[in-house]
Amino acid sequence: MPMLDYWNSRIERAPLDELREIQARKLRQLVDTVYRSSQFYRKRFKEAGVKPEDIKTLDDVTKLPFTFKKDLRDNYPTNMFCVPLNQVVRFHVSSGTTGKPTVVGYTRGDIDCWTTSLARALTACGLGRGDVIQVSYGYGLFTGGLGLHYGAEEIGASVIPMGVGNTERQIELMQDLHATAIACTPSYLLHMNEVAKKMGISIKDETDLKVAILGAEPWSLETRKRIEDTMGIKAYDIYGTSELSGPLFTECKEQNGIHVWADHFLLEVVDKNGDPVKEGQRGELAVTTLSKEALPLIRYRVGDITILNNEECECGRTHPRIMRILGRADDMLIIRGINVFPSQIESVLMTIPEVGEHFQIIADRSGELDELTVRVEVTKAAFSDKLADLMKLEKKIEYELHKVLNLSTKVELVETGTLPRSQGKSQKVIDKRKI
Ligand code: DLL
C-alpha cells in the first residue's frame, strides 16, 4: 500500500491565513458541539455569559472560559466526555501526584488524528520508511509507547516495541535489529548510555542509532548537546500531554522550536491571570483542541511555561512553534522570593565539563530561611582528584549557579552512579518544605 508522504502534503506549508481560516471554522464547530453535547461546557459557558453564536472569529476565543486539569479530576472518570461511551475505542489514564487520575477517551477519529500528528512530527525529524524505531516509552496506560508506536508505523518505519526497563536487552536489540532511532525520556537515554558503556559497547561507534526523539520531561539545550556529542546522534524534542492525546509534536530538522499542527490545535500563551502575554514573551500554554471528539478541551491550561513563535520556520513549515518548555508553572521553586526553574539549574550544570549527567535539587528550610542544595554527580576522572580540587569545583559550580539564579546555593558533589536513575520521567526535585 502506498504510504502518505507527510512532508509533501499541502497542509504542512499552507499559508498562515488559510490555517487561521481552518482554525476559525473548526472553533465555531467545536463550540457548537460541546454546547450541545456536554453539560459541563454548557454550564461553564453560561457562567461566563457566552453563547456559541458569540464565537465568530478566532479572536473571540478569549470570550470562552478556561479549562483546568482540576476539571478533569472533578469529572472523573468520564463526565467530561462529549460522545456516548460506545464510540470510545480506547482509554489512557494518567496518574497524577495528587488526587484522582485523569482519564482520556479516544474515538476512532481521535486515534487517527493522534497518529497522523505524530507521523507528521516524525517526518519532520527526517524519519520514514527504512528506519527502525525503538520505542522505549512505557506502553499501557501511559500515552508515550502506543502513541509513538502508531505514528512510527504510519510513516512506514519498523517498530521495536520495547517499552521501558531491561536496559541491557534494549542495547542488545538496538544493535541486533539495527535501530536507527530511539524514542524515550532524555534521562532514560542517558542511563542507557551508561549501561552500554559498562557492557563495553559504544552507542556512538557500535550501533546504527542516528536519531533520538526525547521528551515527556523538561531537558535543557546543554543536555541535548551532551547527548548528541557523546552518542553521535541528533536529538529532537517531543512534546505533548495525556489530556491533549499524548506525544504529538516535535522539532523539525532546524531544532529550533516544536511545531504544533495548527489545523488541529489552537494555541495561546497567557500570564497567571489568564491574560495574553506580549508576542515573544514567556507564559503558560493554553490549548484548544480543534479536532478531538471524545474529550475536546477548550482553552486548556496545560501548566507548561513556554514562548510562542509564529514566524515561518526555515524548514518551510508554516505551523507555529513553541519554544523549549522551561518547566511546569507548578515545578517552579520559590527560594527566598526568587523564582527558580529546575531547567535553569540543568542548563548551568551541563556547561561544566567535570559534571556528569545526573543531579538532584533539594529545597529545604532552615529556621525561617529557604535553602537550596544541588547534589551533583561528577565524572569519574574529576572525582578521583584531590580533595582541594573537589572543593574548588564545588565553589566553581556555586559561582556559576549564582550568576544565573541570582541566589546562593549549596553544592554537594557525589560520585558517579550515586543518584537514582529513572526509566521514565525523572524526579529531580525534592521539596522538603512541602513534606
Ligand atoms: O508525557 C506525553 C508524552 C509522551 C510526551 C512521550 C512526550 C513523549 P503526561 O504524562 O501527561 O504526558 O505529561 C505531560 O510532561 O505537561 C510537561 O510538563 C511534560 N513534558 C512533556 N514533554 C515535554 C518536553 C506525556 N518535551 C507533561 N519538555 C507536560 C518538557 C515535557 N516537558
TrEMBL record:
The keyword Transport does not apply. Keywords: Ligase, Nucleotide-binding. Pathway: Aromatic compound metabolism. It comes from the Archaea. Its EC number is 6.2.1.30. InterPro entries: AMP-bd_C_sf, AMP-dep_Lig_C, AMP-dep_synth/lig_dom, ANL_N_sf, PA_CoA_ligase. The keyword Nucleotide-binding applies. GO terms for biological process: phenylacetate catabolic process. Residues 337-433 form the AMP-dependent ligase C-terminal domain. Monomer. This is Phenylacetate-CoA ligase. It comes from Methanocella conradii (strain DSM 24694 / JCM 17849 / CGMCC 1.5162 / HZ254).
